[in-house]
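Predict the 3D structure for this chain.
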Amino acid sequence: MTKKSDAVLSSPNRQSYVAVLLILGRTFIAVFRQAMPIFLVLLFRQNPEEDQPPVFLYAGLALVVLVMLWSMLQFIMTRFYVQYDELIVHSGVLQKKKTSIPLERIQTVHLEQSFVHQIFDVFRIQIETAGSDKSEVRLLAVPAHIAGAIRELAVQKVDSGTHDTNSAVIDAEEAGTGIAAKTLKNRWLYHDVFAVIRIGLTQHHLKSGWLIILFLIWMYDNLQQAGIRLENYAHLAEEWQPGLWLFTFFATFLSIVVVIISIVRSLLRYWEFTVDREKGGWVITSGLFTRTEKTARDEKIQLIRWSDNWLKKLGNQYDIQLFQATGYKQNSQQRLLIPGSTLAVVHDIFQTLVGEGIPENLAWKSSHRLFFYRTLIMLLLVALLIWPAMVYIGYEEANAIVLALLMYLILKRFLAWQRWKYASTDEHLFLQQGTFATNYYVIPMGKCQSVSIHQSPFQRGRSLCTVVIHTAAGSFQIPYVSLWEGSSLAEQILYKSSAVIHPGFSGAL
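Done. Predicted structure below.
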């Protein structure tokens, strides 16, 4: 058993030989992009002299050979192993690099299998930690049994003793590695095809609409570069009299295309979406052509967020995100997303992490009405200054444009004021915010790193303040609350966070 463990993780390992092809392809594409202008100049140059040897062909062949040698050296110099509760990775060709990551610092193990990876049964691995905004370790092609062993070591809870590397390797080989297989007894959630289609139907379709607009702009730009001037054909449409029915037809057609794009994107991303529980951790797997898997332990979860929009409300759906500690900026790779969920799933996750359900009948408190009124007055004053100037210079469309923009900004601020709420219990802080969509947060007070109270001159004269709560997963604001409420909440958070010995959802109780 010990020999098997030493051969898998305790001794230095290299990536699969498939990594040579992946490194070669990635390096060749990067070099080709940089050298393309030079090759074009050499290819289309006009040389009045006699034909000379095609120097650019020789240079290209030499470049290909250098790229192949460079890729092979990168493959040879990359080694990784586990020693003294640390994952150690050696890399670099001209400049050697050694990366050591304590296993307890690992936030997320991100596994991917593209179509090429699935053919050779290898995995791409990205390992995220709390101290960086990018992946600490990237391995392009790792054999399945080694990928499973790394994931098992990362997901199991770190005790005061050492890790049992042997048991992790055996569990990975018996249960199936990573994305390859899951045991149904650990299955937490599964989305079939119909559930994924419902997720696509309730997505934010404006993103898909922007894709269509960008595609049309790209097509128009290419036609212009090809010498086809669309304005030259304007006379052919003189007798075209578009009516209301034609506008309705195109609007309906565009809406259908946008929805179809959202559904296709959801199918590609969330195909066979599963959430599994393994040894006190979460494993989320999804993807059609590229299978992805994210792994994180319970104690690494900083807070819970679930959100909706007006489409999701119709289907009683929520998108749940489990936030982990990040670097100096938010990193989507360090969030676990569970789309198309229900409030029951939110309660189950909270119950699993905390040990109790979400309290009912929370005493929600709202921001002061001046949060909306102050912005309303400022917008009206700006509109009164801009509107006459636009009319004076002869821009008659200013009436409709300024009025529409003004109504949009007022509505946005009003919705933000209506949704800004907070509530607290002895151990947790609950936040609600958003404009056209509503986001709900549950933050353990023991996870809060610091609390600050800000007062603008306008707030100071009315005994109001904005409370800013800093956590390892980001900062959150509670705007325009009374100074007494803000100070009391800050004192409560500081007391709870200082009383926690082992930070975490369970440690905060």
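The longest helix spans residues 244-270.
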